[in-house]
Amino acid sequence: MEFYKSSTPKIDFPEKIRGEAKFTDDFVLPGMLYAQTVRSTIAKGKIKEIKLPELPEGYYWISAKDIPGENVVNIIFSDWPIFADKEVNYVGEPIGLFVGENKEVLHKLCQQISVIYEEEKPVFDLVNSYIHKEFTKGDFSKAEKNAVKTIKETYETGYQEQAYIEPQGILCYIDEDDKFYLTGSMQCPFYIRKAVARALGIAPEKVRVKQPAVGGAFGGKEHYPSLTGSQLAVAVNKIHRPVKMCFERFEDMAYTTKRHPSVSTYEAFIGKNNEILGLRIRVKLNGGAYKGCSGVVLSRALIASCNAYVFENLDVAGDVYCTNTVPTAAFRGFGAPQTIFAMEMFIHHVAKELGVDPLQLRMKYLAKQGDITTNSGEFHDPIVLPQLLDKAMEMSDYKRKVVEYAKPGSNKGIGMSLFLHGCGFTGSGESTIINGKVKLIKDENDHVHVYASSADFGQGNRTTLARIVSNTLGLPAEQCTMEAADTDHTPDSGPTAASRTIIIVGFLMEKAAKQLKKIWKSGVRQEHIESYVGPSYIHWDEDTMQGDAYPSYSWGVNIVEVSFDPVSYQIKVDHCWSTYDVGRVVDERIAVGQADGGLLQGLGYGYLEHMGIKDGKFRNRSLSDYIIPTFEDAPPMETAFIDNPFIYGANGAKGMGELTLVGGAPAIALAIEQAIGHKVNKIPATPEYIMEVINHDKH
Amino acid sequence: MTSIKFRLNGKDVAVDLDPSMRLIDVLRDHFSLKGVKEGCGEGSCGACVVLMDGYSVNSCLLPLANVEGHEIVTIEGFKETKQFDVLQKAFAEVGGSQCGFCSPGMIIAAQSLLSHNPHPTEEEIKAHMSGNLCRCTGYQAIVQAVEIASKKGAGLW
User: Fold this and answer.
1) Which helix (H) or strand (E) segment is A34 a member of?
2) If A226 and its partner were Cys, which of A43, A128, A195, A348 is the partner (CB 3.0–4.6 Å)?
3) Cβ-proximal residues to B120 (8 Å cutoff; 6+ apart), any chain
4) Rounded distance, CA A154 to CA A135, Å?
């Protein structure tokens, strides 16, 4: 069956392009109230007293005292309160909600409330580690002993804001079945169901979560709606009326989770034949006030710390630091963009230092099938990185340009990144922890209804998952449809995260469809549920971080060409070329859309998207001062896929959502290095930073 | 309060509302035109753009008083036109919409461009559309969609 090189119409396209798709803020219910959050104005302290203004009739104050269950947001590590009770730990931490029917009155109440604090000294530096992980590979002491010299560098990456165009929003009410019904801008309906059940102290079955149209997410709506969903459920539990809370842009940017800023130090131990005997890697992530999912982000950062290269001896450790700032959490790439940036810059700088060609050095350590991974597991599947590399270099005329642009005064640069991305949850977690399920129902008219909790927030899941089913059954695409996730009707297929939707849920869909095909009886209603069973050869020890970190890896190459303006210090991206191995492409148009969008976010991370923070307050709180790429920043992008089917993927497909982001920053940073003739060790490489390194190197 | 009169999606309307209200709130809350989206509230993202006398304007920046006597078209009105049909087919062909939140604004901005410049260059498309942000597509597909619409809809604009 030929999936590749063909595309089907997107299921939700007509309603979206016509402006008819209903997003959270488009729902208006009879008797609906609005909520506005009262937030901490200080970075750290005890709450001594809350002086409430006089509440007009029909207005309510909701706080920690109203929570019938536990005052924690159910995240991977549940240390995040739903409402701050006795203490606050960051500027913007929610203390309570005002709820009522008029937003202007709510706004006034938020200004009138007075919270008396006993201020404490906040911590903003990376000094208090609250998560530590480490592992080694090979015999590192031998590498240390045999080294004739070492090369050491430090890399920094900044915050990155998801900047989905639809801000966060959620709506809750008690439905006709007496359930707490929530709909909102979300990635993971079952996460919200669990969180709300825990907050209210009720069974998860008493909570129903349904996904409406969602205007982009990129990780930013993976955990945060568990917080706002819990808050609204507490309010509805008290008031018994529908309540909606939609953030304005400034509130979303100032107080919701972002990508972890990082500082990574890489030290190479060099042998007498200029070989890299081993690496010592230290990674620091800023986790903000609460841990949440930061432990898993750190895991991915460390597992990805050698990127697509294999070194014999490693000493890897990392920490997440507690600071009195907004908690950081999931963002497309989930820890990997930070260390992949560091590794790509480092191997390039080491090559320069050793006087060897960077491409030669990279090729020497490139991962091959059967090699031992960073975490002492094995690369089980065929790796086509050399083909990806050749193709990308041919498309971009890299070899000629890299020589030509090296001439002084060219003010042009070309940079290349090679990268991998582990698909799905860490180790054997897909089989042992998540255990995702999907369901197919064939009705009496032989129409197949596809059920999975994988939320479609632009990536096209509803189209691709339904397509996997129709292709497997040999039916026309329109005979299989997938509805939006609804916890009352869809089985828990796991969260919509970690580039797992196609490789894991898609694989399950294919198995379910094969099963349905076997038992198919025309004109009869039939149902089939399938549970995930992963490859038996995957073994992982979470405590020692040893073994196979992921079921499989996707691979890619980005090449970026830039021009540098020596007067304004501005960078213009002229052209990009990318090649990817995502197993086998399910739908080419959707895949190219992921490739273009992911790369532009990765480029933005590398040179544009700067978020400053002072005294625990973000300085950039709008889309006018936090600059994401616009039409005029977007370069022409050419993308090619190399077919490399994965045995445990739907018709060979692996993951790709995050893969397309992780290489953007190092590719553009290397291009900028060449264009300006100075090292770039920090992103975003803004004009201010470029000016700084040029002036610094002059003196 | 004096009523404010304007044309909305081909019909004459008059509203008795605070003239300083933002047009976006009038359209979404008073007329239930939910295809007009709010992404930033300060004219940065373009999700709320509507046509005023054929030009795209940010309805989050426009006070109601300013539309007195003017013609406003939102996606709800525009989707009934031949021009919309050409544009939506072009967007579908190249994948110019992912999450869809920016899409109504993109379509309106494209209409504003093509109605004044039926055969824009790539640079002109990018310059005209740069007030509309998209975080999903990387823009390339949208530029291609406008180019395709410009060719296939030749004579419509």
Assistant:
1) strand A33-39
2) A195
3) B113, B114, B128, B146, B150
4) 20
Residue of B nearest to A22 (CA): B34
* Distance (Å, whole) CA B141 – CA B157: 21
The residue segments making up the domain with residue A503 are 429-531
Considering only residues 66 to 125 of chain B, which have any Cβ-Cβ distance to chain A shorter than 8 Å? 74-76, 79, 88, 91-92, 94-95, 97-104, 107, 125
Provide φ and ψ at A426, rounded to 5°.
Answer: -60, 140
Q: Domains in chain B, start-ordered, CATH in brackets?
A: 4-74 (3.10.20.30), 82-152 (1.10.150.120)
* Beta-carbon contacts of residue A157 (< 8 Å; ≥ 6 apart): A261, A262, A337, A338, A341, A342, A605, A665, A682, A683
The pLDDT of residue A697: 79
pLDDT at A434: 87
Greatest distance between any 2 Cα atoms in chain A: 81
| Measured CA distances, A687 to A365, A569, A608, A614, A693 (Å) | 33, 5, 9, 20, 10
Say whether both A627 and A683 belong to one domain. yes
Neighbours of A647 (CB within 10 A): 11
Tell me, what's the ipTM? 0.98
| pLDDT mean by block of 10 residues, chain A; 699 residues | 64 97 98 98 98 98 98 95 98 98 98 98 98 98 97 98 98 98 98 98 98 98 98 98 98 98 98 97 98 96 98 98 98 98 98 97 98 97 98 98 96 98 87 91 98 96 95 95 95 95 96 97 97 88 94 96 97 98 96 98 98 96 96 98 94 96 98 98 98 88
**pLDDT at res. B1:** 61
Mutate to test the interface with A, among B97, B99, B106, B142 (most CBs of A within 10 A): B99
CATH number for the domain that contains residue A201: 3.30.365.10
Find out whether A171 and A27 touch, Cβ atoms under 8 Å. Answer: yes
